[in-house]
Structure to design on (651 residues):
């Protein structure tokens, strides 16, 4: 036996110090391999829509209702099943509603408890007792375990369970116990959550989503471009800070900054009201329904323009500093003719400006911030970097997230893999080194992490700037378009200048040779693997399908964000992968939690099987199974070492 192997087995012996303990663990692990794989749940492009996100998380994209159908079949009416499902999603709210309508609460409690116990038994059946025990709520762990575990030694099981249920009701704990059971079912029905990016921007509640994810039992996150720009802002990258604030103002979401994160916007407000006091701020209206007063609306427009101009200045400086980013065409302020009120774009064409009032631009040095703008950005920079809640949320993205992951044979990322028109991988230069495919993803992610963790100031600055690059660069795998035409949309009427051409990746998704090549690039088997990504909304209303290349590619951005739903025709796709296969769900727009509770209205509108397995997928067929098999092999080696006397038992 080699020295390295012996040292490893000696460390393993500290965990399993006897033949008996090692043998027991082998038996336990072997039994786990033969359990059905847990359900994976995939969400993407949530864009701050907390209530819709929360509902989909509670119902497991239909997984809860399927469990109810499995348990009760035709023995319960559809209305009873809906009522039970709603109770599991919103137990506290549903109990309060039932109390107002139900004359015999004791009978309702008894019936409901038995139904929930049956669902709980089925939901827990695919896990080991140890794993279920860890998921049990502390206050009721022992009682729930008694109720959902078959007890062969009890002769009159019905009387035994009746006595427990009756006692729960008699001591006035039925409501709390129902809540505990409902939350346990929610917890067990999904084994692992994948969030494929864009938690932030557009909608009003990304901070609530992040709070919820902070306590979620098992998840990974693939960063979206909207997440990375927030990460850049949290790290102190000023162009990212300006972008985040502009997006919040544009979608009337300043509450996210002020109430959600406690970031003071008063310095920007004060500056905007003074610097742009005589400016009508044409084209800087805010999107969405307004509850603002006329004065608030006017102030919002001025702030919107003020931070936009600051953003364009900061971006111009960046592209001039980083020639290797290849984004000189995004520095546009110096192309303005202030006297003619026109702009000449890099293609040589000249256009009139919709808005030609630039009170803070020095035309001799158009990308220099004015002293007042400098002060505003310094104060905002400090506010973002010193916001504890924001930093905790970004830490979650770093700890649980990355630019991509491979999980159970599938490749997960938010946007695209930059490709040339012939389907080959685009070579991209990052700080003097060239990368493509998986290596590009790895290099970009490394620089993002350096922005937060490196002790070297220069490396930290490179990391900060790369987050702005990831947000908006043509060769960024998270952006995936030839340019971000934010400036043109604000200042040029001609819509031909607003076009953003997508990367070839999106035009080649039906080519099997290209998709197979991408799966191999990331170390996956093209025969069994899938690419699952979001980023670009699927226009179902125009007949577009989220399933491409014969099922090898699944695009699950269907429009959680309300701003997209007019063009997508739905309110989001989600995906589940259980022991039977992959199931895609299309969702109706979510109205409110109140309507979901009162009308028992679920939002899963259509579930379509993308791929069914010929045989049920077991834990042994998954990545976890591979790791378990490796541990079993190591433990067998340890047993052999004990029996040969190479390692001594510690009894």
């Amino acid at each position: 036996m080699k020295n390295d192997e012996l040292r490893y087995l000696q460390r393993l012996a500290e965990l399993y110090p006897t033949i008996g303990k090692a043998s027991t663990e082998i038996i336990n692990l072997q039994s786990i391999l033969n359990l059905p794989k847990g359900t994976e749940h995939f969400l993407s492009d949530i864009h701050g829509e907390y209530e819709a996100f929360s509902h989909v998380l509670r119902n497991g994209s239909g997984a809860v209702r399927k469990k109810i159908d499995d348990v009760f079949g035709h023995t319960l009416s559809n209305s009873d099943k809906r009522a039970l499902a709603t109770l599991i999603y919103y137990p506290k709210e549903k109990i309060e509603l039932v109390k107002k309508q139900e004359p015999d609460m004791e009978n309702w409690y008894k019936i409901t408890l038995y139904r929930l116990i049956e669902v709980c038994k089925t939901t827990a059946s695919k896990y080991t007792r140890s794993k279920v025990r860890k998921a049990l709520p502390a206050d009721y762990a022992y009682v729930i375990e008694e109720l959902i575990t078959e007890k062969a030694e009890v002769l009159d099981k019905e009387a035994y369970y009746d006595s427990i249920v009756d006692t729960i009701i008699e001591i006035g704990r039925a409501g709390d116990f129902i809540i505990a059971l409902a939350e346990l079912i929610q917890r067990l029905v999904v084994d692992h959550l994948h969030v494929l990016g864009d938690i932030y921007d557009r909608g009003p509640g990304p901070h609530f989503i992040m709070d919820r994810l902070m306590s979620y039992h098992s998840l990974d996150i693939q960063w979206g471009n909207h997440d990375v720009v927030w990460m850049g802002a949290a790290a102190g990258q000023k162009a990212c800070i300006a972008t985040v604030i502009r997006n919040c103002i544009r979608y009337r979401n300043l509450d996210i900054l002020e109430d959600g994160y406690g970031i003071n916007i008063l310095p920007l407000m004060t500056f905007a009201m003074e610097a742009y006091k005589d400016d009508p701020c044409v084209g800087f209206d805010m999107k969405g329904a307004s509850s603002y007063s006329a004065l608030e609306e006017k102030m919002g427009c001025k702030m919107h323009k003020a931070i936009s101009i600051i953003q364009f200045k900061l971006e111009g400086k960046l592209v001039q500093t980083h020639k290797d980013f290849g984004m000189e065409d995004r520095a546009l302020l110096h192309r303005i003719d202030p006297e003619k009120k026109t702009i000449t774009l890099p293609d040589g064409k000249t256009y009139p400006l919709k808005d030609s009032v630039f009170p803070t631009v020095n035309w001799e040095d158009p990308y220099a911030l004015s002293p007042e703008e400098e002060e505003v950005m310094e104060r905002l920079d400090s506010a973002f970097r010193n916001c504890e809640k924001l930093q905790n949320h970004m830490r979650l993205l770093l700890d649980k997230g990355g630019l991509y992951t491979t999980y159970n044979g599938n490749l997960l990322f938010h946007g695209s893999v930059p490709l040339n028109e012939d389907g080959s991988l685009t070579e991209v230069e990052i700080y003097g080194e060239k990368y493509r495919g998986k290596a590009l993803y790895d290099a970009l992610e490394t620089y993002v992490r350096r922005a937060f963790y490196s002790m070297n100031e220069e490396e930290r600055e490179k990391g900060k700037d790369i987050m702005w690059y990831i947000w908006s660069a043509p060769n960024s795998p998270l952006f995936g378009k030839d340019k971000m035409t934010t400036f043109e949309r604000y200042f040029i009427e001609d819509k031909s200048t607003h076009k953003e051409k997508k990367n070839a990746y999106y035009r080649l998704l039906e080519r099997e040779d290209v998709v197979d090549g991408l799966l191999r690039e990331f170390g996956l088997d093209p025969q069994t693997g899938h690419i699952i990504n979001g980023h670009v909304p699927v226009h179902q209303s125009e007949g577009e399908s989220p399933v491409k290349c014969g099922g090898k590619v699944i695009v699950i951005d269907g429009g959680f964000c309300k701003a997209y739903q007019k063009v997508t025709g739905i309110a989001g796709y989600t995906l589940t992968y259980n022991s039977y296969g992959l199931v895609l769900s299309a969702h109706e727009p979510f109205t409110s939690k109140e309507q979901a509770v009162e009308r028992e209205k679920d939002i899963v509108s259509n579930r379509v099987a993308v791929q069914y397995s010929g045989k049920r997928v077991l834990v042994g067929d998954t990545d976890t199974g591979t790791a378990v098999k490796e541990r079993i092999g190591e433990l067998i080696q340890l047993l052999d070492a004990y029996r040969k006397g190479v390692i001594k038992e510690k009894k």
Summary: DSSP finds 26 helices and 17 strands in the chain. The two ends are 24 Å apart (CA to CA). The chain has a mean pLDDT of 92.
